[in-house]
Amino acid sequence: MGLLLGLIIGALAGWIAGNLMKGEGFGLLGNIVVGLVGGFLGGIVFRFIGLTATGIIGSLIMSVAGAVLLIFIVGKIKGRR
């Protein structure tokens, strides 16, 4: 059940971040990947600044924040933003 919930949160986080940053999602698989990597990145950033995310909503917020940061960094590297 934990894996399925992680994939759902990752897909939702990737979709939200995609809509916030570029106006559209990345497709189902792309949203999952962006959301999962964003969750990892968000966890690192949250721990670094002393925040904790608990529960489903906290995980979603952390994943969205990390995914937005990921999209921003990739955009800077590619020279788009």
Written account of the structure:
- This protein has one domain.
- Helices cover 83% and strands 0% of the residues.
- It has three helices and no strands.
- It has helices at 2-22, 28-49, 55-78.
- The termini are far apart.
Overall outline: globular
Q: Helical segment tally?
A: 3
- Which sheet architecture does the biggest sheet show? none
- Estimate nothing, just give the exact number of structural domains: 1
Uncertain residue ranges = none
Beta-strand percentage range: under 5%
Number of strands: 0
Mean pLDDT: 88
| Helix residue percentage | over 70%
* C-alpha termini separation: 38 Å
Rg over CA atoms, rounded to whole Å, is 12 Å
Secondary-structure-derived class: mainly alpha
SSE topology string: HHH
Give the arrangement of secondary structure elements:
Blueprint: H1 2-22, H2 28-49, H3 55-78
Pfam families: Transgly_assoc (PF04226)
Membrane topology: Multi-pass membrane protein
Family: Belongs to the UPF0410 family.
Descriptors:
single chain, 81 residues, mainly alpha, 3 helices, globular
Short description:
Helix content is 83%, strand content 0%. The chain has 3 helices and no strands.
